[in-house]
Amino acid sequence: MVKIAKKGKKKFYITTAIDYVNAKPHLGHAYEKILADIIARWHRFIDEDVFFLTGTDENAQKNEQAAKKAGIETKKFVDKNAQLFVQLCKKLNISNDDFIRTTEERHIKASQLIFKKLFDKGEIYKGHYEGLYCYGCENYITEKDLVDGKCSMHDKEPEWIKEEAYFFKMSKYTKKIIKFLEKKNSVLPEGRRKEMFNRVKEEGLKDLCVSRSNLNWGVKVPFDEKHRIYVWIDALSNYVTALGYPSDKKFKKFWPADCHLIGKDINWFHSVIWPAILIASDIEPPKTVFVHGFVNIKGSKMSKSTGLVVDPIELVEKYGLDSVRYFFARNIPFGYDGDFSYESLIERYNGELADKLGNLVSRVVGLAEKYLKSKIKKKKSDEKLFKNLKLDLIKKQMENYEINKALTTIFEFIDFCNNYIQEKKPWELTKTNMEEFENIIYNSLDAIRIIALLLHAFIPNASDRILTQLNLKTEKTIDNCKPGLLKETKLNKKEILFAKIEDGK
Ligand SMILES: [Zn+2]
Prior knowledge:
- The protein is α/β, with parallel strands linked by helices.
- The chain is built from 18 helices and 18 strands.
- A hairpin with a 4-residue loop joins strand 4 and strand 5 (139-141).
- The radius of gyration is 26 Å and the shape is elongated.
- It starts with 10 loop residues before the first strand and ends in a 15-residue tail after the last strand.
- 42% of the residues are buried.
- The mean pLDDT is 93.
- The structure holds zinc ion.
């Protein structure tokens, strides 16, 4: 049968990992959400139909342990902590379309359905499992993962556990997963794909334990209530249950995911285990798993024990949201580890947001205020100026998830605009050639308009404030980034976009 291409917009489905709620959000959570938000906003900007999902992983045994420690009921504990993540999204101006909590009925039902489907198909069987178990990893770990007898990730001694359990026949899917990982963009960056590919090729896949017994918390195995569904089929399935799997319109429209944005510590789960579960369930695997790096603090891993913790909410309150979003997007090469420090955040803010972007806007709006009473007439576009606007390159970079490079390209244009003003010296023309003065101001403002539109995905608040100064209620789409679309207008009063940060931390 010939498939007829659907009319309308291209769809784009992006997810973050779902966060554990056993502790409050840290900088790493904020980093991932900001990146996903930039990508989601950008895809709306290029006129795609976007669905952006984030949420919380609440069925982990860790939550039960943490609740016990806090002396409250597990459900109350997760309800309370989940709200911290909802609030974080608000604080960061995250444009998620849905927020899934794995304790919600919609998730419980659909994840049970997947489990049952796999069991009925003979993809899940009952057996016994024993081994070293790390509660931090929520996983059995092998001797080679240990350093001085402790889990190297969690610095904790694992426990020896034996239990009756259900197993997913993952070994059966070795070839199919190799095939999945052979696809060029299945996992990005390329190095992360190779890592997974080589590991599966060398080790093959083993059957996977997908249930735990004798727990009081978590989603029950629907046909055997002594068992709870273990993290793989429970947590990972949020990406389809949030879409209303199996029957909802949304699922049919948005699946497969275009981008699962995750941290490098959970790459195996998303690039190997998850696609295997999906293939076994007759569901298409995701198009791309994008693996971002970790945010270190002064070169070291964030950790409570060393005191290297930065509260993202406090950071936003102190330095403003745009500076935090800008810093993450610009300073850390997407897909690699990066470093956070107050010094570099302030340097980026003062040197780029204030001195480059803020300066350009305030200079041009100021000149228009002083010499034109803020009244702007439509003029002819200056081709020489706009040939430096590299829209196609920016698009390409965003398509390749090169967020920091795209920002660099936008800022090169900002530099060019600042030089344009510097070289043309329009203030010297006010007595001799007002026509030319107005040409320069019009074109500079038109450039600022386009810059504000392009920056909307990255720093939405500043983008809105710039457009307000230009007195524009333009739709934020890439189609509006063509030069010459600025019409006659009366600017609003000049305001400082980015006041310089004088003190250090
Ligand atoms: Zn561990």
